[in-house]
Amino acid sequence: MTFEPVPLDLLPDALNASFKAIPAVMVSGMLLLFLGIGYAFRVADTEDLWVAGRSIGNVENGMAIGANWMSAASYLGMAALIALSGYYGLAFVVGWSTGYFILLIFLAAQMRRFGKYTAPDFVGDRFDSDTARAIAALTTILIGFVYSVGQARGMGLVGIYVFGGDYVTMVVLLMGITVGYLALSGMLGATKNMAVQYVILIVAFLAGLYAVGFTQGYSTVLPQIEYGALLSELNSEFTEPFSTGGVYLWIATAFSLIVGTCGLPHVLVRFYTVESERTARWSTVWGLFFICLLYLSAPAFAAFGTDLYADKVGAVYGASGMSGAEGDVIVVLASQLANLPTWFVGLVAAGGIAAAIATTAGLFIAASSAAAHDIYTNIINSDATQREQLLIGRATIVVLGAIVTVTALDPPALVGELVALAFSLAGLVLFPMFFLGLWWENANREGALAGMTTGLLIWLGAVLNELVLATDAGPVVPLYAEVFPAVGAALAGTPIVFAVTIGVSLVTDEPPERIKRIVRQCHSPEPMGQQQSAEDVVSADGGQISGDD
Amino acid sequence: MSDNNSQQSDNTSQERDEDASNRTVETDGGVATGGRSADTDYLDAQVNIFKPSTLFMRDHLRIVWTMFAVWALFVFGPVTATYLATDFMTSTTVMGFPLHYFATAIGAPTGALVLSFVYARKRDQLDEKYGIDHSGARAGPDAEAAATDGGSDR
User: Fold this and answer.
1) How many CA atoms lie within 13 A of B86 on its CB side?
2) Residues 7-46 of B with CB under 8 A from A
């Protein structure tokens, strides 16, 4: 599958774009609520800003995992991908949901035990290298950027439906609100907000699905299963396997999304915010449950939307078929085509905006901590005061917000595809470091540096080849795009990064005993204190004192 | 620290011939907090995903690898089967769905969710078996050690 060029005029044709009073009030009220919660839980110190004082419990963290996770790409983009690219779109459903299991069995509890602040912190401390820390921090910022462009696009498209106006105004307005409340409140406010955002987005999505299914006679009590009967009536493109992408691309995409899940800094940091490793495990299970609620429903929504579109608008596939912008709002579009009341369509739209804002918040927090904590404090100025760190963190949020907004004005791909690019980056550069760092004590600094550099190069190559430098004729080097498709570069790339990291680690010196003991502490079953990191335990253990009592 | 380590390796050299995972090491104080896990010094047990070096890690990794295999079947099984036996997978229907669509869109996510729940349960049982109690983590005495930021430079 190649990236369709997106027309500059992003107004979806079939969507009734105009100012609507009741939906506008609903969405404004929701945005004010987010700002209010952000203000009520505003923070003054960095511990709260980055990891919420490590005080978050099971279900709340599960909801935050869900909201953090379910961005515009899940709420809007996934249904679009399923509607527009059929069976290939399911690779996104599978990749984005099942990856959490890998995260759970291999990384969640161990990460919690390592117990630092950020993902680059882990890389820098584990491999004992500021260069590795810097690469990880820059990757985190890059991921935040690529991922957020998709969110901004989603917010803008839905915003048009609610407020009318044009795409540019909506992107600027909604990004401005996101940045404002983040700069105020940081992670604690964001976590509290995320639980609220999860409730809004899942209620809106499910209400929309049930209402569309019920009023149009598609389904009654369980649309997630009942849409099966509809599939045979849709165009064969909807279900036919491998019509829009071969089996390699399918597996590559799913694989990339799975390892990307395990390498995303804003996902991992959710494990640093919980009170214990057992909470880290169970909140992952809760998170996946909350995620599955939406992921089992999105294909049903896509099927309903596609059928309604074919009935009321025109052919879905082919040259004059559904546009990318229409696909990206198909969830809202389906509610509108089902003749649901305007306020109700507004509710569905509000859910999409909540999803986009929640994820952008998580990404920006991760990026701002990478800049303020990992780059500024750990590398540039080790005497940085909390005040300076907060200032740098907030400045990063504002600057990144501005760059994302500008880029989103002319986005190069669909919401889901943009987000998938961030996943293949995380899967290529960060996942191998997390996995080897935690599961092989002999992985060392040289190995990590070589591995991360390899991963970055593979990803940059894929993106330049397929998106930035590509012409209408297709990618610059077709063979490279076959092996390393931009959205699925990790299938071939991650094993290479693993091999490079292991190979270089083997031919260079083993890491120091102190580091090895920290890794071992991550796997020890013994309980640790809430505020304790593996490093604290190891350094206390080597000394004469027993540390406590 | 290095003296401390060589002393321990003397203690353990005898037992190394036996099952490595069974070795018991005298703790050097400070970490072990009780239960059966107190018999093992995890800070001296090598971490290697293919060669678990303690009883606990071996038990844990057995669960991890078994469930990983089941997971791989759920996730990549449907698409592989669809590729290999396209006609069978697309013409068989389950609850109105073509089989390939059902196994991918519903089977894989649900499978991962059920597996996650089972894993978390099994891991809790493992904690129980090794006498590990996380409830004390909140107000554990260790919080103080963290506040003073450890004794690395003492």
Assistant:
1) 9
2) 28-33, 37, 42-46
